[in-house]
Every structure is written in structure tokens, then in C-alpha cells.
Amino acid sequence: MDNGGEHPSHPSEPPTVPTAFQPSADWSQDITAVATSVYDQIFAQVYDNLIQAFGAEVQRLKDSNVSIGAAYTAVSADYSALEQRIDSVMSLAARSTGSGRGPRPAAPEKCDGGTQSSAE
Q: To the nearest 10°, the Cα dihedral for 3, 7, 11, 16?
């Protein structure tokens, strides 16, 4: 049963350096020379293509990183401004009297003659 933590075993490790061209032992010297030349040309072209492709990808990632950094800076500035506005509002609310809806109404005058109930 696969528990998800195990990786499949590879039949061999990937090469870390390119393998040199190995011509067949029964080839003539002329065929070996031509095959080696073609192999070297193909290897050089593939190598150049990989360098160009990965170079372009690295540049794209760098450009994306700059864009993400600029967006983060803008969002951070907006957040800081919002935080300052919230702090300002909270400070005003803490200094105000009552519920923050303006001045408190004047206390009602006492009724004469006992017309108000004692529950009020």
C-alpha cells in the first residue's frame, strides 16, 4: 500500500555531466569522424538553446518579481494609510463623550404632581 511518503526508485541516477559520444566499434574512421562531428554540432546547438530558453525564463521571473514587489509596496502603503485613518478615528472616539453621536441631551426636568411612574 502506498502511504504517499515514499518516492519511486529510479533505475539509475540522472547524469550530472554529458556523456561523450560513443561510436560503434565496427564503424570506419570516416563514419566515426562524421558521426562525432554531427553529435558535437547537435550537442552545441541544444546547449545554446537551453541557455537561451532558461535565460529568458530567468529574466521573466526577475521581471515578475519586480512587478510583485511594486504591487506589495503599493498595497503596504495603502494599508499604512488605512491604519492611520483607523487610529485617528479610534482616537477621536476615545476622546468624545457619550456614544459618539454628539452631545448628550439635557436631563429631563422633574415632574410635579407625581405623574411620572417610579419605573422611569
A: 180
The answer to whether residues 43 and 18 touch, using CB atoms and an 8 Å cutoff, is yes
Q: What is the pTM of this model?
A: 0.38
Cell numbers for 89, please give them. 478615528
Q: What share of the chain is helix, strand, coil (3-state, %, to 5)?
A: 55, 0, 45
pLDDT of residue 20: 77
Among the listed residues 87, 85, 83, 64, the one whose alpha carbon sits nearest the alpha carbon of residue 75: 83
- Among 75, 53, 72, which residue's Cα sits nearest to residue 64? 72
